[in-house]
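## retry 2 of 3
previous attempt timed out at serialization; input unchanged, resubmitting
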Amino acid sequence: MKVCKKVLNRGLGIIMNKFKRSAFGVKFALVLVGFIIVSSVVADNHQESKSGVKVESIRDGLYMLQAKGGNVGVFIGEDGVFVIDDGYQEVGPAILSAIQTITPQPVSYLVNTHWHGDHTGGNEHIGKSGATIVAHDNVRALLKSGSRLEIFNTDYPGLPPVALPKITYNDAMTFHWNGDTVVLQHYANAHTNGDGVIFFEKANVVHTGDVFFNGFYPFIDAEHGGSIKGMIKAVDAILARSNDKTLIIPGHGPLSSKKELQNYREMLNKAVQLIEPLKKQGLSMAEVIERKPTQPLDAKWGKGFLSPDLWTRIVYNAL
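## retry succeeded, writing output
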């Protein structure tokens, strides 16, 4: 707790002297001091959460950065700096500053795993630093035109040219970079219509983008081509290319493993089993939500940013 004890003690003394003549005054003084302490802690924590970037070294020049938004991957070596995603717009400068604490090299390439603003918000800032942005064809199209997510009642304006991918791919792309083979693999109709999963073959590390949320229910963007069965297919493909030593950077959540990805896959499949029969019976989305079909999963998976009811709505729409 970063509260100045000298200032608090002085303030406490002044308040207590002012109100010491009555029991009510003493109680009021203590409440007031408590409020000051709590307010100071809340403000301090807010400042740290807004500006702080957690940097985690993984292996072989690979790092995971966590700030506001999706997880950022950084790959550093003799060829230069290769970055995956960049969080929300307001943390773009902090992400770049965090990278500069690891290496003085400029960012050569920035890969966007998909179009959502919590993964592409820093594009303009990093693009202005000289990085070449790379993404799937559909990602560039959506970033250029702008779009809307009705489920969150949020509009995303089109980005300026400096923030757009200059290189795009359709199915796959390979970088021979920093002594590793880095494969960008597209999986159709998974989290969105433009997901790219990045495999570092020598390092045995995978950045999944939002195909994988580690530990809680994921968002599936059915408005832009996402589907839960496509998510399952993509996860199956990642599992097939992984082993017990694979380290997995999820789109959100802590650094993960093949076992945790398998557990996530089982959850997705169970959600389909619980909700799809109800939809096929002709029940409306509201009727399905009312039945609370995900209760067997909620205790473990329902403590993220999506409530069980919203998750049920997402699965219903993504089937």
